[in-house]
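Ligand: glycyl-adenosine-5'-phosphate. Inputs:
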Amino acid sequence: MNTLLDKIVSLAKRRGFIFPSSDIYGGFSSCYDFGPLGVEFKNNIKKVWWNEMVKNHENIVGLDASILMAPRVWEASGHLSAGFADELVECKECHKRFRFNEIENKKCPECGGKITEPRKFNLMMKTFVGPVEDKASVTYLRAETCQGIYMNFENVMNSMRLKIPFGIAQIGKSFRNEITPKDFIYRTREFEQMEMQWFCHPKEAKKHFDFWAKERFNWYLNLGIKKENLRLREHKKDELAHYAKEAIDIEYHFPFGWKEIEGIHNRGDWDLKNHSKFSGKDLSYFDENPPAGGKEKYIPYIIETSGGIDRSLLVFLTDSYQEVKGGRTTTTESAKEVEILLKLHKDLAPIKTAVLPLVKNKPKLVEKAKEVYKILKIHFSCQYDQVGSIGRRYRRQDEIGTLYCITVDFESLEKNDVTIRNRDTMEQERVKVKDLLNILKEKLEH
Ligand code: GAP
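Predicted complex:
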């Protein structure tokens, strides 16, 4: 148990961020459950993304489309053809399966055995609607949320009276029958995406593509990700997805290498053109004010920003994880131990504040601390903890990224005040209980 990823997996389970799915049955197929802190963390990521995309832009609106759609959607999108398939190989000796692009020298990465010829394996998750499991009732769990956006291009544009360029944003679950899910929550079969589809004039697509690539890159930087751990990587022609004219990945330097966390794609007119063809509904747009003047009818181009909530959560966990040697919390018992500090951005940290009575065996202190806890808990995610030495309790909060610990001591009883301890600087300030809420609001909300 010593690689960074192992440590993060262990912390995530121990402190209620992420558990293996169906844990008492030994887990299930790289599926994970998000625990009490995990769900707060995820909700924070979604909120920050939604605010950034929908609230900060005048011309982006939201949507929540259904996961199950008419199977023709996936024929038109190209997901049922070879374009949305991985090449699968099997080791002839240990019979483990791998994606062909993970193989070097045509040998099994596990045992070095010979491998079979690659064969195509479609990633769509099949299911049946209704009681009869026949061909006519087959449909699919969506493999990307954006198809629900294309289905509603006209509904949204007309109901909201939008004019091009505009965007539709959506957060939701997607499913892919991945051959080799791995690296904890990095590649799973069930995951959440945060996608925004930007509809624009074909001649302006490049300009918007460059704009959104920059915007999305800066989003991660602004949330505290270290610059040296982030990069943009353009796709070469032969690695472009079947729908893309141009693509750029935002990559993060994980403990298991540089990997994609978000893709920005110029999807051209691929989606709306194919959906027009397959549905018989003309999805072209009549532009009364195109860039070259006059009037013009065309199929809009789409610039897509497509990120994963699970992947970005792993990025934020990994990037904020620190081990500090030698008693950060200044108690003798912890002086020789390694202390974990999760330096999460304030908007992402699952727990913002914790209230700690200095000792638990003084009823008056406990009573006062509970009073303070009651004031805070309806405003911020807040924990109350009275178990163990104060140093240990600071450590417990540091390792889940709690921003401020509020300590109630003997002086608090006389002066009606508390101390606020800053997670990062460990500085403590004394404030009156009557001012506490506003001071914390100022720190957390600005
Ligand atoms: N609509 C375009 C699209 O889905 P993608 O590059 O296949 O593009 C976009 O996926 C993002 O979705 C990825 O950058 C990643 O964050 C997330 N994602 C894709 N497959 C995933 C998986 N198996 N497990 C976790 N996240 C995944």
